[in-house]
Each structure stands twice: as C-alpha cells, then as structure tokens.
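Hi Y.,

Following your request, here is the sequence exactly as I used it, all 120 residues.
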Amino acid sequence: EMERFLDSNSGLRSRFSQHISFPAYDGPACVRIFNTMCGGGYHLDTAAQEALQQNMHRLAAARPRGWANARSVRVLLDAAVSAQAGRLSAASSALDRETLSLLTAEDITAAFAAKWPDLT
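Below is the corresponding structure, written out as tokens. Let me know if you'd prefer a different format.
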C-alpha cells in the first residue's frame, strides 16, 4: 500500500530520502508481542493462550487489509480487554484482582471476531 501511495504522484517518492521496511511478523512472534503487551496488567489462562495461538497464526498468515504487525496486536489486546469488561459487567459477585486481570478464551475469541470477522 505504501509503494502504491509513493507512486501515486510523480514527485512524491523523491521527497522521502530514507525508506524503512518492516518484515511481517509470523504467528508465534505476534503471540509473544501480545503477551509482552499484557505486561503486569493482564494474563491469559491456558485456554486463552491456545485460542490466541490458533487465531494469531491464522491472522498473521492471512495478513488482512489493514494488517500492521504489532499495532494490529495492540488493537487485538484492546478488543480482548473490552470483551473482558463486557463479560465481567454481567458478574453478580465482587471481582477480585485475579479475575480482573485474567483474559479468557472467550475474551480472545470475541476480540478476533470483533476485529477480523472474516477470519473467524
């Protein structure tokens, strides 16, 4: 897409003296990035980790329109946190720190479906 943009105007490419190419990350790299982005605030249970690996492998291989490597992984994490918030809002009991920091397979699956419905 960037190449097409630079070629869209005959003088545009000459205005950028340096070009940086970023290789597309594969599924395992995206999973590592996701887990790193979770930092100390969130963690995944085993089922969520499996759902993340399966879906991320498919997503990284497909590279849908708008795919942006780590930025897309950040979008996915934000969607998973939103899904978690929706899931926990229905909880009738008090929520402890562990519950508030846990992302489940349901949250991960909902995030993928919300952001990339054609791939789920």
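The helical segments are 2-6, 27-38, 46-62, 70-89, 97-101, 105-115.

Thanks again,
Q.
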